[in-house]
Structures are given as structure tokens and as C-alpha cells.
Predict the 3D structure of the following.
Amino acid sequence: MTAPPAPPALIPALPGSPELLRSVFRRHAAGVAVITAAREGSPVGFTATSLSSVAAEPPLLSFSVGTGSSSWPVIEETGHLGVHILGEHQSGLAGLFARSGADRFGPDTAWRAGPEGVPLLDGVLAWMVCRVVARVPAGAHVVVIAEVLAGDPEGDPAGGGRPLLYHQGRFNALRD
């Protein structure tokens, strides 16, 4: 009888740390969304790669936002927000909404006021207007849970229907 093969040598794991989490999640491709809201007609928004479906009944989604972000004071108080799924042609828009201090709703950003006064971006693959149902503190972030009230799953047909992805610290397109 022969002995079973030896297990492959294990690579020592890094201790739990922010660096470990970041380095592992750089390998995780994520869809790119822009979250928008408004206070007294003044729009805010940010790029999010943490968007996730939570439940179909009722239709709930979640995302996280840093409490130090310029959008947080409005997200903290708003009852409604917009969620926009970006297409592969929108890496510039994703970068604009990710950049601190940028004029996100300047003349180069096509948008309109939607239901509940939520800013809706033009040219996206799909969008939803949501009602915030919970805010859960999580470290230096807050996980926002929101119920979908309205939306357009078709978005802009000119966008080609292919999503923008975030992987290895860059915006990318799907490859066949």
C-alpha cells in the first residue's frame, strides 16, 4: 500500500489586515455604479463598486459609503437616492465621480431630476430610484440598504449593454 500524496505546500497567509483585504479584493472584479442624491436641489454622487442585490422580495440593494466622503452628509440624511449601472464606455464618468473635489455635476455631466428629486445620469446601462430603509455603521463606512421604487433596466441603447468593471485598481471592460 502506498501512502497518499503529500498535500501541496501551503503558502503562509498574511495576518488579517487592511492590506490583506485590499490585495485580495483587487483580484475581485466588480461592477461599477454611481450613487446619486440631492439636498435642496444640490446633487451629490460617488462611484461605488460595493453595489449588491440583497433581496428580490421586497426588492432591496446595498452599497457602502465612506463617512469621510463629500457625499456622505447628503446620503446620511436623504430618503431617496439613484443607482446607476455604468457601461464600458463610461470609465471617464466613473473616474469623475470617484475623484475627490471634482465638479461631478458640471457641464460635461448629462443628468436630469428624476422621481423624488433624485439626480438621474443620462447614458447609463440601467438606473433605479430607491428609498433608503437602513444605514448600518461598518468601520469608517456605512452600509446603506435601499428599496427599489422605480427604474429603467434598458438604460441607453447606445451604450451597447456591456458593463464597466473595476479590477486590479483600474476600470476595465469585459473580454470575450
The two ends are 47 Å apart (CA to CA).
